[in-house]
Amino acid sequence: MDAAISRQLVDKIYEKRKAAALDLEKQIRECHQQGEQKRINQIIDQLVEMFSQTSNPLHIRNGGLIGLAGTAIALGVDIASYMDKFINPLLSCFIDSENRIRYFSAECLYNIAKVSKGEVLVYFNDIFDALSKLAADSELSVKNGAELLDRLLKDIVAESASVYIPMYPETAKARNEKDAQSSVLVDLTTSSEEGPKKAFSLAHFIPLLRERIYVVSPFTRSYLVSWITVLDSVPELELITYLPEFLDGLLKYLSDPTEDVRVATENLLADFLREIHDVTIVSRQFEHHAHAKEKYRSSSTLAHRHDPESGQEGESDQKSHQGSEPAVNHDITSELDDQDIGSWVPGQGVKIDFPSIVDILLQQLDGEHDEIQQSTALRWLAEFVSFAPEVMVPFTPRLIPAILPNLAHHVSMIQNAANRTNKFLFNVIQNLPIAQEAVPSPGASVLSVHSQGGANLQLQPQEEAADPFDYQAAVNELTIQFISEFEETRVSALKWLIMLHQKVPKKILAMDDGTFPALLKTLSDSSEEVIKHDLQLLAQISSSSEENYFKAFMMNLLELFSTDRRLLETRGSLIIRQLCVNLNTEKIYKTFAEILEKEDDLEFASVIVQKLNIILTTSPELAEFRRRLKSLENRQDGQALFTTLYRCWCHNAVSVFSLCLLAQAYEHASNLLYIFAELEITVPMLVQVDKLVQLIESPVFTYLRLQLLEPERYPYLFKCLYGLLMLLPQSSAFVSLRNRLNAVNSAGFLQVSPKM
User: Alpha carbon of 341 to those of 278, 289, 338, 707: distances in Å?
Assistant: First the structure.
């Protein structure tokens, strides 16, 4: 540069440096007009030397920066030819220890970007990275200067990033070199066709964003969120395609201590979710249209094939059908083709990487992330299930262990989100069509028609359809939830299994698949609600299985009671009653009786028979069963039932006596009393007799008490009750039964003789 300009440009007084920069601007403009590129190169080298040497005094470095800004203004967009010379040294000044150097370097780049427009996008990654550091600068003036440059770059990106192609060989070369020097993702966008490379490359930028997204500074986070928002606002860039690359880091911003960062992130994530929804809907519409078009074309092809009645095909067939039908077909085809021609629809052709996004969302639910991240992840999953169920169905086995444990989360926000997600997913799977056993082979017709000898139908080879939902994997995950500490989780797992078994009873939950022991063990659960659902599932499996399954189930249940007496004592009645609600009561009692009749452990057999008898006598669920036992004289099947129970009930003396009273076999009951006299009358036996007397005073035996008014019809009833009275010691039960019998005596019923 001219010597006078050079001296004045390094003057200590700012006004003189500014005037020198204006003079340099004129000189550069003249050189440019005269084509003196060599001299311009020398001047730029001289300016770079001035501001890049940290040993130079501050006024010299500032002079170099203001001189470079003037040079850019003089050259206009042609500054792009020289950018490779100074862009890196200039960006190095962004991290200089001197505030004024950082400020003037940002101001210099602002002027360069303003005149170079889209050309500066070739160096976007370098500028973006340098600016991210200035966004957190401690000096307010530097931060303000950086914000001006940042806004200008955003305007350029929004206006040009999707279309601008470098116009200068130097910048085009720099663009290619940057792709070769740094990591570049595969371009997944719809605009990735071959041709001249654009100045801005999203595939080149995303690796940098993926690296920087994990910063902790709230200022830098705000900077990144603002840029992601800008890039997402340019539809042609299709930033949503690369969402998995930075979603994990972005979700962490939701728990940032700064409210501005949290709010901006929430808004950005809401925009992404809305965009995924829109893209999914648009994709589905295009798929339906393509399917309809293909279906119509296939049907048209079939319609123009060989006609079996005429025995003609090819051209003769087409000629015979000339007329209105081809015209109609042509119109429909044209209409379908016309639907392919039209304005571009936002979201058209955009790819959403659901598997990777779901992976990231599931990672947020491992319990180590903040509550806001967990609730947001669940909310996203719920939305995905809502608007893209066909995409989410294969993920169900992985979603179950992520959702169900959160149904009882102590934070209501997470609990509500988990319940909503679980409800949506449950309904989707419940309404999922069951895959057919077989489908036609691809490209093969199911029916083949032959013209000679009439129409011969031949089935072509078929193959099994692939089911998008892995039932067995889902069952395995649900079974694991049985050990959850939360009742809500265990209940929900059982509800899922009940629903799945209702859908495909032949596919899952067989007795030998390992699930059966887990279901049996769950009967020892501390929650009554869990036990009820477990029994419902076991009963459901039994109902849809072969007879040997049911008997094996009863045997395993009795074995469980035998080994876990506490379960029998605390939950035995509940378990047996619930089984009677869900299965055939007679079948249950007959199977129990047949098994227990051969039981070697007589003490256990006595205890379980006593339990079964009390349930039989008192439970409202068994009212119909009791009525059947009362009609022994009229029904042979009732007699057979009584006989089966009687043989088993003999394990417990009081229970078999109670069974006879219930079945109105009073004569036999009275005979049993003589046998009782030969037994050792123990305290447990007397306690049972005491309970039986209490039962006689209950509503269940109302019919028996009324029969005391007809001694001529039921003479052995009195013998039974008086015999029972003789067994009892002087106790409250003795007094109660004596008072009942005395009431009958005092009324004179025992003295009444039948009239002749």
Answer: 20, 13, 5, 91
